[in-house]
């Protein structure tokens, strides 16, 4: 492993004295001191972990690819402390640095500093996230304080970019220049960012808290429905208001936010948010991380009780001048053009014309456009970033915005300059058309750097970028979204996509094969109005075929202007599963070993002995039949849900969990009857209390889904959202059963000889 990169000889602390805000400079000094104490072993790692997370410093997966000379695979390495090797040795395990970019707004100077830092301290790549942040990977923690100082000098911070805090506040990238917005939400997002950053009322959360702003209800730019708190702008009788929603979230089980205030006056937005924060900090779950988001508190209390508690908290708040002082100058953040507007010139270039059609959006201000640059996999090189900063200075001024679809917008581009601007970005390799279309898929980091990654989401997305532009030529398909996550978490926001993928693993002939669950039925429009469900799994190498099969069938069968999610609803999940049947099976290892390697990775995804039986037939353990039966039951539950038989769907979903749990218990040789009570007791005894079921990262989260469903034991419900959540939980429990079976192996230690597992280390 490489040692920390050597910084320039100058001392950034003294060099930047006076350019950093005093409070930020003091915080960075404190963090530098905490690093020194941790290195000496004087701070417990659990405490230090939350400290560094609140400064945006993550541990990461690394060495997941070729050796430096390209000759072969490196071993995966997961040190117990991903950022240190103990108090007496060199800290040589690189991590990830997340940098907050509130509502995605970047200046040329900020972009240049980010380019310098990426080149000097990282791998010369700036990664744009789905929360309008920038991430730098392979950063050594000893380099972090001076990096933070250089960022602070240009108005950027890493504070509370991670950890149990208010994460980067997102907003529509077209705010202030959109033709459809009620009003510009930019100053409100800025005010909330400044108000909540480091606020004492947001320091005691059990989990993260995400906020989003939207200038309208109709478009997906703000995506407020899956946020802990969302604000949608509207005007009534000449006065500005926000519809405020609360308790949304994606993650493993997505939940749609509930309306907290239909009509929040602009002057009440900050105090209302503060009151919500205080209720969450006081009553939110603190022990079980799996239940510690706002959405679970809203579910537990009910939205009416949650509203009452927030109103009570609001009444008790002391007046704070910051609540309204920004309202006196809302125009302070307004952007101005630096060149005269005009018409887009004619060009014989087909690529330029295609780029104009998909990547150039007219602003509300005549003669000006928002130019969106697609960044493959959300990555910009340091050289590209420097060139883009120069382009901004010449064409648009400091009017760049990062987007939640991992792209970069240049606002206030004069139509007259469009061709010259495109020719320059084309020379940089960033002139592709298709922004925010089917040709522009989104991906989380997946197995490249994330320790939760199961399948290579970036590898699959890179492959899709080769095939999707052809499909996107069909006008019926162009507006579809494809989003890929490497695990059950929804970092790519796959639940809200037309076609979503989430990484899972399967056993085929005794070997592990990377797969992706296919999620269909999500609606990206109207601020992500609805979420999809898993309809089945396909081998990773067949995922591009699955996309082509689904999209071409939709194009052929579409009725009028029928949207993709409407088509999915009309034909039903059973038909979809039948459609995917031809691409759902992996060939044997002998037929095609490439299926047993993930995208972009030369090593086998997993190795294991093939189970060869009589007449060269495979011996299939009974547990695999049981898990397959459970999977079929989840599909039947989905079909019942689609048919409006919600109570029956809930009962069938729970039955699938019972079937899967029973399969595991019997796989260990346990004697168990078929009734649910006996299965639950045996599963709790042999898998939960022993922690045999616990994944190293999510621990007992998915076991809780099963035990909680049993504790309720009443499925007489007509609430489709509650049933939708149970279907998601059943599916995740099944995936956890698959993973547990893979960990236990085909010939496990019998129950009679099992000893309780040692407690898993705390995250």
CATH fold-type name of the largest domain: Sulfite Reductase Hemoprotein, domain 1
Strand order of the largest sheet: 1-2-5-4-13
Radius of gyration: 26 Å
Annotated CATH architecture of the largest domain = 2-Layer Sandwich
CATH class of the largest domain: Alpha Beta
Question: What is the molecular shape?
Answer: globular
Largest sheet: 5 strands, antiparallel
Going by CATH, what is the homologous superfamily of the largest domain? Answer: Sulfite Reductase Hemoprotein, domain 1
Beta-strand fraction estimate: 5-15%
Overall mean pLDDT stands at 87
Class from secondary-structure proportions: alpha+beta
Which regions contain 5 or more consecutive residues with pLDDT less than 50?
Answer: 63-92, 607-620, 753-763
Instruction: Kindly give the count of domains.
Output: 5
Discrete helix count: 22
Work out the helicity level.
Answer: 25-40%
Distance between the termini: 24 Å
How is this structure best described in words?
This protein is of the alpha+beta class. The protein has 5 domains: 12-152, 2-Layer Sandwich (Alpha-Beta Plaits), CATH 3.30.70; 178-333, Sulfite Reductase Hemoprotein, domain 1; 350-427, Alpha-Beta Plaits (2-Layer Sandwich), CATH 3.30.70.3340; 437-563 and 579-602, Sulfite Reductase Hemoprotein, domain 1; 620-763, Nucleotidyltransferases  domain 2 (Four Helix Bundle (Hemerythrin (Met), subunit A)). 37% of the residues lie in helices and 14% in strands. The strands form 4 sheets. Strands 1-2-5-4-13 form a 5-stranded antiparallel sheet. A 5-stranded antiparallel sheet has the order 3-14-15-12-11. The longest helix is centred in the C-terminal third of the chain and has 25 residues, at 720-744. The two termini are 24 Å apart.
């Amino acid at each position: 492993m490489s040692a920390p990169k050597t910084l320039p000889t100058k001392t950034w602390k003294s060099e930047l004295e006076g350019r950093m805000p005093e409070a930020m400079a003091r915080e960075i000094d404190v963090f530098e001191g905490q690093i020194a104490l941790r290195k000496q072993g004087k701070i417990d790692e659990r405490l230090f972990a939350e400290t560094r997370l609140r400064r945006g410093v993550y541990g990461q997966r690394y060495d997941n690819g070729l050796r430096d000379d390209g000759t072969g695979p490196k071993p995966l390495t997961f040190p117990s402390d991903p950022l240190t090797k103990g108090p007496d040795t060199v800290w040589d395990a690189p991590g990830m640095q997340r940098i907050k970019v509130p509502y995605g707004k970047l200046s040329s100077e900020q972009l240049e500093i980010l380019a310098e830092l990426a080149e000097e301290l990282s791998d010369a790549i700036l990664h744009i996230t789905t929360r309008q942040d920038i991430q730098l990977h392979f950063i050594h923690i000893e380099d972090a304080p001076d990096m933070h100082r250089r960022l602070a000098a240009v108005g950027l911070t890493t504070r509370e970019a991670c950890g149990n805090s208010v994460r980067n506040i997102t907003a529509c990238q077209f705010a202030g220049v959109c033709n459809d917005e009620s009003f510009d939400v930019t100053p409100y997002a800025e005010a909330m960012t400044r108000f909540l950053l480091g606020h004492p009322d947001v320091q005691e959360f059990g989990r993260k808290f995400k906020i989003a702003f939207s200038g309208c209800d109709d478009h997906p730019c703000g995506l407020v429905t899956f946020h802990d708190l969302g604000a949608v702008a509207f005007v009534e009788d000449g006065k500005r208001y926000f519809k405020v929603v609360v308790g949304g979230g994606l993650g493993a089980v997505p939940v749609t936010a509930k309306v907290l205030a239909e009509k929040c006056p602009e002057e009440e937005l900050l105090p209302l948010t503060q009151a919500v924060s205080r209720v969450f900090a006081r009553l939110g779950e603190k022990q079980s991380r799996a239940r510690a988001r706002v959405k679970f508190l809203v579910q537990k209390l009910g939205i009416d009780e949650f509203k009452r508690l927030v109103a009570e908290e609001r009444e008790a708040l002391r007046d704070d001048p910051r609540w309204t002082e920004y309202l006196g100058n809302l125009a302070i953040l307004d952007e101005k053009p630096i060149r005269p507007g005009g018409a887009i010139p004619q060009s014989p270039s087909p690529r330029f014309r295609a780029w104009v059609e998909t990547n150039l959006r007219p602003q509300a201000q005549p003669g000006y456009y928002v130019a969106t640059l697609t960044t493959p996999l959300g990555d910009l090189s340091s050289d590209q970033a420097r060139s883009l900063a120069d382009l901004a200075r010449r064409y648009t001024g400091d009017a760049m915005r990062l987007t939640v679809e991992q792209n970069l917008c240049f606002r206030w581009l004069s139509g007259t300059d469009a061709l010259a601007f495109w020719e320059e970005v084309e020379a940089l390799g960033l002139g592709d058309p298709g922004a925010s279309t089917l040709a522009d898929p989104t991906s989380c980091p997946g197995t490249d750097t994330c320790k939760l990654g199961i399948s290579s989401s970036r590898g699959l997305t890179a492959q899709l970028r080769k095939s999707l532009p052809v499909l996107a030529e069909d006008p019926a398909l162009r507006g579809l979204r494809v989003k890929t996550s490497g695990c059950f978490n929804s970092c790519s926001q796959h639940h809200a996509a037309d076609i979503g993928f989430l990484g899972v693993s399967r056993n085929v002939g005794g070997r592990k094969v990377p797969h992706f669950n296919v999620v269909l039925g999500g609606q990206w429009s109207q601020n992500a109005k609805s979420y999809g469900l898993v309809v089945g799994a396909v081998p990773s190498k067949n995922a591009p075929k699955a996309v082509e099969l689904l999209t071409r069938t939709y194009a052929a069968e579409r009725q009028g202007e029928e949207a993709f999610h409407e088509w999915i609803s009309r034909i039903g999940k059973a038909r979809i599963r039948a459609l995917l049947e031809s691409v759902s099976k992996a060939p044997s290892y002998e037929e095609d070993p490439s299926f047993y390697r993930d995208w972009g990775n030369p090593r086998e995804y997993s190795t294991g002995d093939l189970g060869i039986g009589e007449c060269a037939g495979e011996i299939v353990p009974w547990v695999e039949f049981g898990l397959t039966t459970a999977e079929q039951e989840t599909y039947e539950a989905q079909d019942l849900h689609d048919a409006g038989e919600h109570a029956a769907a809930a009962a069938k979903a729970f039955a699938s969990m019972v079937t899967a749990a029973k399969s595991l218990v019997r796989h260990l040789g346990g004697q168990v009857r078929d009734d649910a009570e006996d299965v639950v007791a045996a599963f709790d005894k042999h898998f939960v209390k022993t922690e045999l079921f616990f994944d190293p990262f999510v621990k007992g989260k998915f076991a809780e889904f099963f035990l909680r469903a049993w504790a309720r034991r009443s499925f007489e419900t007509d609430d489709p959202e509650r049933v939708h959540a149970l279907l998601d939980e059943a599916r995740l429990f099944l995936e956890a059963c698959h993973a547990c079976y893979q960990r236990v192996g085909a010939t496990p230690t019998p129950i009679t000889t099992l000893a309780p597992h040692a407690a898993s280390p705390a995250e």
